[in-house]
């Protein structure tokens, strides 16, 4: 496969590894960007962006990044903490009074950010259209009882509900729509091509997302799919399928337009690498809050994902000895994978910021082997 873009010759093996992804006929399109100490050393892309395979992936192609979105929301919330408009350890009900219902009066922003609040899913069946109704979703979550005691230390990833649980406090504290807050505080100051709530005028640049076939993934993926297919009332099933439109909306205009801070950020590999480079060099958070974001808050068996996860505040921390939960570089790495393969992270020890974006969704629960391999190759180049 002929790749486009730029790479420093020191990272030629990374570029070769990226090109080799396209030996798989199901690999449709992708982009990779790596920055070291703020300097871009790899910025490449290849493949096709449209549904029918006629439109090439271009330098300005963007894609739905799914949960790679979550750290952008967390940084926005932490900036509001720095400004005194939100508090990490005060009850969220102070700024969102309705949230106190069903025994949630003492749940804090910290617990929401590290997935310990017990709100990864909604029990009540919601119609598909509720996904696009901010008031409907925040009301449902305000009325929901936790699935476990938030004080217990148990954690369970909130794949979609995180978007409203973090977005509503941001909206109330910043007095603007949550996607606008992220744009004003993160994307625009850094010049990132990253959007939560995409303008219709940008739709022509968005890669069509499709799933690869025939690959069942690893044991964690198979365990999760078994539960979601066999037990409609399980926490994991509710988390991913209520509202039922969650799993079928990726390419729809209404999905692109909404401001869902958990899963519908649209951007490119450059925007992910730029975001993590800015975290490393102190342009987004003061050191105290960056330390809070990246220190361990939750670790162990995840009630939702049914595999071991380790979280800071709104970011996934590396688990070097867990095959599906390591970024493939240093043990202090932090970031977030997105459903199907896209991934952004930082390795502070190497001053490395990494962004990988694909429109060919793999079946893995946490880290996709494609991103892991490219990260390891980068590490080898650095010695």
TrEMBL record:
Chain segments annotated as coiled-coil in the UniProt record: none
Domain of life of the organism encoding this protein: Bacteria
A molecular function GO annotation: hydrolase activity
Domain Beta-lactamase-related: 19-374
Keywords: Hydrolase
Protein name: Serine hydrolase domain-containing protein
Source species of the chain: Azotobacter bryophylli
């Amino acid at each position: 496969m002929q790749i486009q873009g730029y790479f420093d010759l020191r990272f030629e093996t990374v570029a070769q590894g990226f090109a080799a992804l396209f030996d798989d006929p199901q690999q449709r399109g992708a982009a990779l960007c790596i920055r070291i100490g703020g300097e871009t050393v790899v910025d490449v892309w290849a493949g096709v962006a449209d549904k029918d395979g006629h439109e090439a992936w271009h330098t300005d192609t963007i894609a739905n990044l799914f949960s790679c979105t979550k750290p952008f929301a967390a940084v926005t919330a932490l900036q509001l903490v720095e400004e005194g408009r939100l508090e990490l350890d005060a009850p969220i009900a102070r700024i969102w009074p309705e949230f106190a219902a069903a025994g949630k009066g003492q749940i804090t922003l910290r617990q929401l950010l590290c997935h310990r609040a017990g709100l990864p899913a909604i029990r009540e069946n919601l119609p598909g259209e509720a996904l696009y109704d901010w008031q409907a979703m925040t009301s449902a979550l305000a009325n929901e009882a936790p699935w476990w005691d938030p004080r217990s230390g148990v954690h369970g990833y909130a794949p979609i509900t995180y978007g409203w649980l973090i977005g509503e406090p941001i909206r109330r504290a910043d007095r603007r729509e949550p996607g606008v807050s992220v744009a004003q505080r993160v994307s625009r100051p850094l010049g990132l091509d990253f959007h939560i709530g995409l303008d219709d005028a940008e739709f022509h640049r968005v890669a069509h997302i499709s799933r690869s076939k025939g690959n069942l993934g690893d044991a964690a993926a198979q365990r999760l799919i078994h539960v979601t297919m066999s037990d409609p009332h399980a926490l994991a099933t509710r988390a991913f399928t209520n509202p039922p439109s969650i799993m079928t909306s990726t390419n729809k205009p209404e999905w692109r337009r909404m401001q869902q801070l958990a899963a519908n950020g649209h951007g490119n590999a450059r925007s992910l690498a730029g975001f993590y480079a800015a975290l490393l060099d102190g342009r987004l958070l003061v050191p105290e809050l960056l330390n809070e974001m990246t220190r361990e808050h939750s670790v162990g068996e995840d009630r939702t994902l049914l595999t071991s996860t380790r979280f800071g505040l709104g970011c996934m921390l590396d688990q070097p000895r867990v095959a599906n939960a390591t970024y493939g570089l240093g043990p202090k790495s932090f970031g977030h994978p997105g459903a199907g393969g896209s991934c952004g992270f930082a390795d502070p020890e190497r001053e490395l910021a990494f962004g990988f974006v694909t429109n060919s969704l793999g079946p893995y629960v946490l880290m996709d082997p494609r991103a892991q391999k490219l990260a390891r190759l980068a590490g080898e180049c650095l010695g």
